[in-house]
UniProtKB/TrEMBL annotation:
Entry's Gene Ontology BP terms: DNA-templated transcription
One Gene Ontology MF term: sequence-specific DNA binding
Origin organism lineage: Eukaryota, Viridiplantae, Streptophyta, Embryophyta, Tracheophyta
Domain DOG1 positions: 14-200
Descriptive protein name: DOG1 domain-containing protein
Stretches of the chain forming a coiled coil according to its record: none
Signal peptide (UniProt feature, chain positions): none
Source species: Coptis chinensis
Length: 204
């Protein structure tokens, strides 16, 4: 019985973040719908698009801030989030997407000669080195497990957001829109397919 309050707190934290995440996804779909018309627009709306790209980045930042607060309550929940489908969880690297995924999405959504310039300016080996360093930290976590894991999540999320922001800074507003559209579409498709697969398993 002494553990009951802590257990209730964990459940409350889980429900709170799950509710936040569902609302966040609705907003993500809204931003995706706002970005898509710019791909076929012939008018000069660069300023408007630049503002929208900034709003999308702020939307992701909001997610990571909420996630950080949730991790401070129960970091173990973040590493195996019940609000994700089984399929979504298979993509996780330290409680989120692997930063290198952003490079692959830019390659497919933007491509062209710009890609080599991005690789040169971003110094991808540095990013890969940071990934290796953080991965090694995971293996070295022995003492103060919860605190160390929270630190890992914060560092990994910082690397994720810094990678995306630096890419967006290099890209033109239209190219940044293509990148963000591709990223959102991938995330939403993975979620839809994952939820469908989990539902089918429950029916069997």
């Amino acid at each position: 019985m002494p553990n009951q309050p802590h257990s209730n707190s964990n459940v409350s934290n889980e429900i709170a973040f799950e509710n936040f995440f569902e609302v966040w996804l609705v907003r993500q779909q809204y931003y995706l719908d706002q970005l898509l018309p710019f791909l076929s627009s012939q008018s000069n709306r660069e300023k408007e698009l630049q503002t929208l790209v900034g709003q999308v980045l702020a939307h992701y930042q909001h997610y990571y801030e909420a996630k950080s607060r949730s991790a401070s309550e129960n970091v173990f929940l973040i590493f195996s989030p019940p609000w994700f489908s089984t399929f979504e969880r298979s993509f996780l690297w330290i409680a989120g997407f692997k930063p290198g995924l952003a490079f692959r999405i830019v390659d497919r959504s933007v491509g062209g000669p710009l890609w080599m310039e991005i690789v040169r300016r971003m110094e991808r080996p540095v990013v890969d080195g940071q990934i290796a360093t953080i991965t090694n930290e995971v293996e070295q976590v022995v003492q103060s497990l919860s605190e160390r894991l929270r630190g890992l999540v914060i560092n990994a999320d910082f690397l994720r957001t810094a990678t995306a922001r630096e890419l967006v800074d290099i890209l033109s507003p239209l190219q940044a829109a293509r990148f963000l559209i591709a990223f959102a579409q991938l995330q939403l498709k993975i979620r839809a397919w994952g939820l469908q697969r989990d539902a089918e398993r429950r029916v069997r």
